[in-house]
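call fold(seq) -> tokens
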Amino acid sequence: MKTPDDFLSSRRAFVRNLSLGAGATLVGGAALASPLHFLADGRTADRKLGVALVGLGKYSTGQLAPALQETKLCRLAGIVTGSPIKAAQWKRQYNIPDKNVYDYKTFDRIIDNPDIDIVYVVLPNAMHAEYVVRAAQAGKHVICEKPMATTTADARRMLAAMQKAGKKFSIGYRLHFEPHHREMMRLGQQQAFGPVQRMVADNGFKFNNDTPWRVSKALGGGGPLLDMGIYCLQGCLYTKGQLPVSVTAKFAPKTDPVLFKEVEAGISWQLQFADGAVADCRTSYAENMASRLRAEGTKGWAELSPAFGYGGLQGRTSQGPMNIQNVNQQAAQMDDFADCILNNKPTRVPGEMGLRDVQLLEAIYRAAETGQKVPIKDVAPVFDRVGR
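ret:
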């Protein structure tokens, strides 16, 4: 069994820089292990649901922990880290008791801790599978950061473990809870501007190697496609509300062969749909991109730009600006999952959706590697439907 410390010991640069950047049938249907008294708004009378963050990199530090200070149904209750320095800092800053602090070797003891209801896995991509499975075996509900896994085999193993545990499982797709993206879903799926004929999505940045795991095949599983490109893929899928039937793709030139020795520097791909619609997408670690999601219908268009950041999103359509207020995306995401647990409801972003996306990401890589059009087969049509 590998722990993050096993990887860290052989990658000193990774030690110094470990950080994280930025309707379907629910897996399992069990509610909490212990009986709870529900209030009218779904909260428990005695406490919020306790969340333990596994991995204290940039995303946990800069986004999730602050968001958990704003959530209404859940709270930051525990941490899992291989760094004693981080453990001490977080205990002081967030008043976390010693009994709720774990490292990667003691993680499994979380099974005996009733303070922890939800485990949020925020580790490098290749570690997601192991820690989701171990969290399931500990009897906890789980949120796993995107991408769910680096292979479909791992994604299926994670789903099986969560099903066996009978606990709820969600992927960290924060934008499903963001109002601009909810509006893009509505406009596209309900064909407010006629059937969507073309979509465009771009998302990327110039990587400076401050988080080396992102360009490590062993830890990241791939490059910008799995990190930034997945937002483009997701955006096109939930705007169109359909699966593509095929995909073509092309790798971008490696402007820095040393930095991008193990993973792609960038990639562009086109999704083709059964009705003739297409989605042209790009992602990169070699250039700063506009962060855009655009959908063009027969009677008009809708666009988000910037589209994929943690805040400051803006939207407009062929009829004018959207005028939608930004929200704390992570707080909305985690409160929604807590509500699903408290009221035994399905999550909008289940593990099956994560598996769907891993399958599609693998198809994009195959298309780029072979230079051929790759048909999309045996992928479950799992969608976040507006109005459900």
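Residues 6-45 have pLDDT under 50 and may be disordered.
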